[in-house]
Specification:
The mean pLDDT is 91. The chain contains two helices and no strands. With 64 residues, it is mainly α. It is rod-shaped, with a radius of gyration of 21 Å.
Length: 64
């Protein structure tokens, strides 16, 4: 177990993200998991956009 020092304002903000009975550790882990998922979705969206922009540069296999 590690102690993390927070400003009172930060602690109050963190508490607002929690559910009844949830520890700070659980709150932070849930938030980090959510952020990781957002990053994966962002990466997928960026790659899809790039594919859409570049798709005219490619020739479909049935046209070769």
């Amino acid at each position: 177990m590690t102690t993390v020092q927070l400003d009172e304002e930060t602690r109050e903000r963190l508490k607002k993200f929690g559910k009844k009975g949830e520890t700070y550790d659980e709150i932070l882990n849930r938030m980090m998991d959510y952020l990781r998922e957002l990053e994966v979705e962002k990466l997928i969206d960026e790659k899809w956009e790039r594919l859409q922009e570049e798709k005219e540069e490619y020739i479909p296999l049935d046209e070769v």
